[in-house]
Amino acid sequence: MTRIKICGLQTREAVRAAAEAGADFIGFVFARSKRQVPPEQVGELTHGLAAPRRIGVFVDESLESLLAAGKAAALDGFQLHGAESPALCRELKEQTGKLVWKAWPVRFDEADAQIRYYRGAVDAVLLDTYHPGAAGGTGRTFPWRGIARFREWLPDVPIFVAGGLTVDNVGELVDEYRPDGVDVSSGVESNGAKDADKIKRFIERVRERDGCYRMKKGVSENTAGSSCLKR
Known about the structure:
This protein is of the alpha/beta class.
């Protein structure tokens, strides 16, 4: 099943919407961003809610800062978008016992092969759109054909895909490329704020395509039949 992360949450309403729609992970941005929240606020946003696992988004923080933020926000995992080394990722995993994901901007050049050094150091790699000077959050897709190369370099590492995902294109991604997970932020927003209906429809679309895939593999899935015939 494709894992789903709804990222860039800033309100209790957004957290509730993601939880009720069935997200696997919710993301809080601690790096400088228009969606930035302080680690101490995460407890307020999730208090009393049956929230999915919490992932903090960071860019080039020290190990000490990561440990402090992880404790303050009671994180279940860390998503690292900077130039964090495999050694730092490994140390963070060892000291916290939490998930560590390495975000990787897909460049389609020799630099991409460096991701091989993170094998064994991280729990997942999140492929995102490369843009000079931006550490993610571009709202644009990258050519998904590049996913195959990363599977060759990381045969036993789950691969998540981010960058420009919406309810209109995530079905194609899941159908054709079968990522282990998807990560969306701006694609489930209206006027810069998380939209509960878009969150719900995004998650429904992913689950629908998961169901279609299982049917194609010969697994009975009563809920997906008619929608699968549309493609």
